[in-house]
C-alpha cells in the first residue's frame, strides 16, 4: 500500500508499521497530533513482519524473499 500511495500522491508520507511495533506507535500518535507535530498522511499497519506477500501467513521457505519481491515489483 505504501508504494501505491507514494506513487499516486507525490510527497505523501506513509508510515509502515509491522507487528508488535504498532501498539507503541499508536500510543504516541494521538499525542503527536494533539501537540501539533507532523504525522504521516497514512499509517499502514501490517500484521506480518514482512508484509502480507512474504510474511508469516505465506510459504516463503521454498522461495527466496528477494525473488518474491522482484516478482511483485515486476523486476524478474
TrEMBL record:
<protein>
    <submittedName>
        <fullName>Uncharacterized protein</fullName>
    </submittedName>
</protein>
Amino acid at each position: 500500500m505504501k508504494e501505491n500511495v507514494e506513487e499516486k500522491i507525490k510527497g505523501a508520507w506513509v508510515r509502515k508499521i509491522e507487528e508488535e511495533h504498532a501498539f507503541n506507535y499508536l500510543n504516541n500518535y494521538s499525542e503527536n497530533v494533539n501537540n501539533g507535530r507532523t504525522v504521516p498522511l497514512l499509517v499502514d499497519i501490517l500484521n506480518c513482519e514482512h508484509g502480507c506477500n512474504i510474511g508469516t501467513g505465506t510459504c516463503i521457505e521454498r522461495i527466496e524473499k528477494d525473488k518474491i519481491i522482484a516478482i511483485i515489483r515486476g523486476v524478474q
